[in-house]
Specification:
Layout: H1 2-8, E1 38-49, E2 52-59, E3 70-76, E4 83-89, E5 92-93, E6 98-108, E7 124-132, E8 137-145, E9 153-154, E10 161-165, E11 169-176, E12 181-188, E13 193-199, E14 206-211, E15 222-231, E16 234-245, E17 255-262, E18 267-269, E19 277-278, E20 285-292, E21 297-303, E22 313-314, E23 316-317, E24 321-328, E25 331-338, H2 340-347, E26 354-361, E27 365-367, E28 378-386, E29 393-399, E30 407-412, E31 417-421, E32 436-440, E33 447-455, E34 458-463, E35 468-473, E36 482-487, E37 494-501
Parallel strand pairs: 1-22
Antiparallel strand pairs: 1-2, 2-3, 3-4, 5-6, 6-7, 7-8, 8-9, 8-10, 11-12, 12-13, 13-14, 15-16, 16-17, 17-18, 17-19, 20-21, 21-23, 21-24, 24-25, 26-37, 27-36, 28-33, 28-37, 29-30, 29-36, 30-31, 31-32, 33-34, 34-35
């Protein structure tokens, strides 16, 4: 996306300056997706077909920094283990111009409405933003595949939507059964608007409506999507969830969401105009879009690397998250939980990779890692604390043996906040305002559930089954590998605990 060029060539990251050339395997994730080498950003075209999850992504095939935007490609059957495939849609070079393949989506054209299919098979159609940096122009374009998504052919009639604008991007397309049309959500970034278009053949598009400005408007809007979700699991009560990525003053990774109704033409938000609903309260989760599955929508996002330099790769994806809507005292709100497919795989891990206790004594603190077990900064922890007494509780991770540096993820019952504290460990790699990150969260019956996913450099913390999430990136020193539980609530503190060793996934 063009926004990445603006953000990362700015003061926050300065990717055009010297980039790391020393290998950093200690920070390479085990169960979060990375490209084999070189730069990665936005997920594109996530689609599930014939039992296989396809992930396409913004990729520079030549360098470990942003540029030469193309679509990388990988596949998986469990959203944990990935098979890397060749670049699916490369940048286009002609004597007159360069076209970079910016973000977009893929649909399975089951009825062959586009006419791109052959031999009676449904084609896959990619709808993406064609960015022409020399012309300072963005349009929407098509490419299609008849080999299951491995290679794509550019549509000779491109572009399919051209407004003559510098910033006009990120088409997200789905089939709307009630109207029998394809629907596209696409961003007018500077105007803080999402446009909706419809088409019968993916080639000719008609403008339906616009949404916005609303909510957070102090930075551009991009990477929109809209999906229907049952409220409280009730299929008779459907609301539509729309997400928009925006960046912001505190950090360049910020996403907001709206809840409302969509009739195939217009989205009407139930969210008050000035209310800002935050998807993730950390400083790294961005540009997320979902797999549209038969029984759920599973979100995957880019974990923006910020100042962290890694080599020979840079950038990673979040853990896939199942989306839901629940009724709260404040209205209908988003919940995000690690995907069911992923959590089911945890239970199948061998016994030596699991530690489970229904009543684990913490005291003031308890060391969980030891030689040969849970000491590789690559684990998944699920813990429930009794927070009816005063005092913070949580985990200290990436701690050095003297505990002079560590990262703390926990809950503060006095402030009713989930938090991630990186102040002792990440001063050189984070903006000062992002060293301590919080999300409001209320206890349930005096209890707080935490899911803490630490994968060598990525940290995702889910509070109370995904009512609040904080995601960030950290870069521990070589000897900082200890994992502790702690409690300020008294020496008799206990918790229920599940801990999984994720090395080798």
């Amino acid at each position: 996306m063009k926004r990445i060029l603006l953000l990362f060539l700015g003061s926050l990251c300065a990717v055009s300056v010297v980039t790391a050339q020393t290998a950093t395997p200690q920070w390479r994730p085990s169960y979060h997706f990375t490209a084999p080498k070189n730069w990665l950003n936005d997920p594109n075209g996530p689609i599930f077909i014939n039992g296989v999850y396809h992930l396409y992504y913004q990729h520079n095939p030549f360098e470990n920094k942003w540029g030469h935007m193309s679509w990388g490609h990988a596949t998986s059957t469990d959203l944990l283990r990935w098979k890397h495939l060749p670049v699916a849609i490369p940048e286009i070079e002609t004597p007159d111009t360069t076209t970079w393949i910016f973000s977009g989506s893929i649909v399975a054209d089951a009825k062959n409405t586009s006419g791109f299919g052959k031999d009676g098979k449904a084609p896959l159609v990619a709808i993406y933003t064609a960015d022409q940096p020399k012309q300072k122009k963005e349009t929407q374009a098509l490419a299609y595949s008849n080999d299951g998504g491995t290679t794509f052919t550019q549509f000779k009639g491109n572009p399919v939507i051209d407004l003559g604008l510098k910033d006009f991007r990120d088409p997200n397309v789905f089939w709307h059964e009630p109207t029998g049309k394809w629907v596209m959500a696409v961003a007018l970034p500077a105007a803080h608007k999402i446009q909706f278009y419809s088409s019968g053949d993916l080639k000719k598009w008609d403008l339906l409506s616009e949404f916005g400005p609303q909510g957070y408007t102090r930075h551009v809007w991009e990477c929109p999507f809209i999906v229907p979700l049952p409220v409280d699991g009730n299929p008779g009560k459907i609301k539509w969830l729309m997400m928009v990525s925006s960046g912001g003053e505190r950090h360049p990774a910020f996403m907001q969401y709206f809840v409302g109704d969509f009739d195939g033409k217009t989205f009407k938000s139930d969210t008050p105009d000035k209310t800002i609903l935050t998807v993730d309260h950390g400083d790294t989760f961005y540009a997320a879009i979902p797999y549209r599955l038969p029984d759920r929508h599973t979100l995957i996002g880019w974990l923006m690397p910020g100042k962290g330099e890694t080599f020979p790769w840079r950038g990673q994806m979040s853990i896939p998250r199942d989306l839901g809507l629940v009724t709260t005292a404040d209205g209908i709100r988003l919940v995000q939980r690690p995907a069911q497919l992923v959590t089911a795989a945890l239970e199948r891990l061998p016994a030596e990779k699991k530690f489970i206790s229904k009543s684990f004594t913490i005291g003031k603190e308890k060391l969980l890692s030891k030689t040969g077990k849970f000491e590789e900064n690559c684990w998944w922890l699920e813990v429930e604390f009794d927070v009816s007494k005063a005092g913070r509780q949580g985990v200290r991770l990436a701690a050095d043996p003297e505990k002079k540096t560590f990262i703390e993820a926990g809950y503060d019952p006095g402030k009713k906040q989930l938090y991630v504290d990186c102040r002792t460990a990440e001063k050189d790699r984070k903006e000062p305002q992002n060293l301590f990150q919080v999300a409001d969260l209320k206890a349930k019956n005096g209890k707080i559930k935490l899911r803490v996913l630490f994968d060598r450099s990525s940290l995702e913390v889910f509070g109370n089954d995904g009512e609040a999430v904080i995601s960030t990136l950290v870069y521990p020193q070589a000897n900082a590998r200890q994992l502790w539980l702690f409690s300020d609530a008294g020496s008799g503190a206990t918790a229920s605990l599940k801990l999984f060793d994720m090395t080798g996934i």
